Amino acid sequence: MDKALIYGQALAQLRMRARLSQDKAAEAAGTSQPTWARYESGESRAFLDRLAVRSKVVRALGFTLRDLEAEVELLATDMSYATEDSTGPGLSASAGVDLTAFNRAGLQQVRIETNELSPYVRAGAFAICDTERPPKPGEGVIMRLRDGRSLPRFYLRQAAELWVERLVSEESAHRRVTETVPMADIAGVYPIVLRSEDE
């Protein structure tokens, strides 16, 4: 996995622990939000390659370089997943969508069978997930368990456990519920890159 991406995701974890938006974090570090976003996505190698930039950005969040390295170590250890088929109980392979427009390997289409991420994606809809890209904090994912189940969730972070969220309906609102799953039970976590309306 690209080292700049791992450092970027570690930075995102520290920012979320500091409870700051990208805008506020960038302001504290004396940079712009688009630059900050490129640090977190790994697009800009300045955060990885320049110690002065890395130190300034991490201090702006109230952390040390040692805190960043601890996050990097956790992410580097736990971010390699098998890229096997992501269908199973709760999801089924779906036909009728032409994936050639995406023109790249690693994309898989699945039908969502549960409402655990509704209204983000509802039962009966389909999703396209990317089996070759690691998830980013806050994005929808297909979580495949070693027991064969596949569940839609929102990705938070991973270390010794995978931290995810699902939505629970409460009258006219939805509440996010955090769950942790031991990494030993995870076969793969695949980011949702496209989702449909209900069919």
Description:
The chain has 199 residues and is an alpha+beta fold. Helix content is 30%, strand content 29%. It has helices at residues 3-17, 22-29, 33-41, 46-49, 51-60, 65-78, and strands at 91-92, 107-112, 126-130, 140-145, 150-158, 161-170, 173-182, 186-195. Strands 1-2-3-8-4-5-6-7 form an 8-stranded antiparallel β-sheet. α1 crosses α3, α2 packs across α3 and α2 (22-29) packs across α5. The protein is globular.
SSE layout:
Elements (H helix, E strand, L loop, with lengths): L2 H15 L4 H8 L3 H9 L4 H4 L1 H10 L4 H14 L12 E2 L14 E6 L13 E5 L9 E6 L4 E9 L2 E10 L2 E10 L3 E10 L4
Antiparallel strand pairs: 1-2, 2-3, 3-8, 4-5, 4-8, 5-6, 6-7
Helix pairs in contact: 1-3, 1-6, 2-3, 2-5
Main attributes of the structure:
single chain; 6 helices; globular
Range of helix content: 25-40%
Structural class: alpha+beta
Percent strand equals: 25-35%
How would a textbook summarize the main sheet?
8 strands, antiparallel
Cα end-to-end separation: 36 Å
- If you average the pLDDT, what whole number results? 80
Number of helices: 6
> What's the alpha carbon Rg, rounded to whole Å?
18 Å
- The tally of strands reads 8
In short:
With 199 residues, the protein is α+β, with helices and mostly antiparallel strands.
